[in-house]
Design brief:
4% strand; Four Helix Bundle (Hemerythrin (Met), subunit A); oxidoreductase; mainly alpha; 72% helix; transport; single chain; two-stranded antiparallel sheet; Cyt_c_oxidase-like_su3
Length: 213
């Protein structure tokens, strides 16, 4: 930003100097949205790192209650994991169709991704309901408190991702694959794949290691 002073009129007293501001060029950096979203994802990584560290400290404090080996149903969790990983593939198909400028195919794969995400959330809510019905709620022990916090935070992110996905489907339907919608779909793609990566850590660190004696 630069400033200049208005010239004095010829003859007579000079008026008070009035600054004139001028911003040359575009002040928004190229790909600034994607860079800003990367910064957000890094901050989200810190949140999940704290939750993983908390679970690592408290994950064996059962307070004479059930352990992960007593509670976890690995078959159910494996199906849930497959749904989320498959949704990452279908979102990749949506991005390929977006590059080909095919609105209908892009919408189709986005819808499939949303359905798989809803299936993941449904099984997760069923698991939480089943655990609470067994008396293994988050207040039962430090292990269960950290478990519900970590897995629930991830589920909340998936919920926000589905809301964002539905919003983008409406935007694409109304305005097509304009540059703004392409950029937003790219950001959502990074977010969705990030959630898959976090879930792989949850599945390994919480569920697989949790059933070990």
């Amino acid at each position: 930003m630069s400033d200049t002073l208005a010239p004095n009129p010829p003859g007579g007293a000079a008026p008070p100097a009035q600054p004139m501001f001028h911003v040359p060029g575009e002040h928004h950096p190229k790909n600034g949205t994607l860079l800003g979203f990367w910064v957000y994802l890094m901050s989200d990584c810190l949140i999940f790192a704290c939750l993983f560290a908390t679970y690592g400290v408290l994950g064996r404090n059962y307070a004479a209650g059930p352990s992960g080996a007593d509670l976890f149903d690995l078959q159910l969790v494996a199906v849930n994991t497959a749904l989320l990983l498959l949704s990452s593939i279908t979102y990749g198909f949506a991005m390929l169709e977006m590059r080909r400028n095919r609105v209908g195919a892009t919408q189709l794969w986005l819808a499939v991704t949303g359905i798989l995400g809803l299936g993941f959330l449904s099984l997760e809510l069923y698991e939480f309901s089943h655990l609470i019905h067994q008396g293994a709620g988050p207040q039962r022990s430090a292990f269960l408190s950290s478990f519900f916090t970590l897995v629930g935070t991830h589920g909340l992110h998936v919920t926000f991702g589905i809301v964002w996905l539905v919003t983008m489907m409406i935007q694409v339907q109304m305005h097509g694959l304009i540059p703004e919608n392409r950029r937003r779909l790219m950001c959502l793609s990074m977010f969705w794949h990030f959630l898959d990566l976090i879930w792989v850590g949850v599945f390994t660190f919480v569920y697989l290691m949790g059933v070990l004696p």
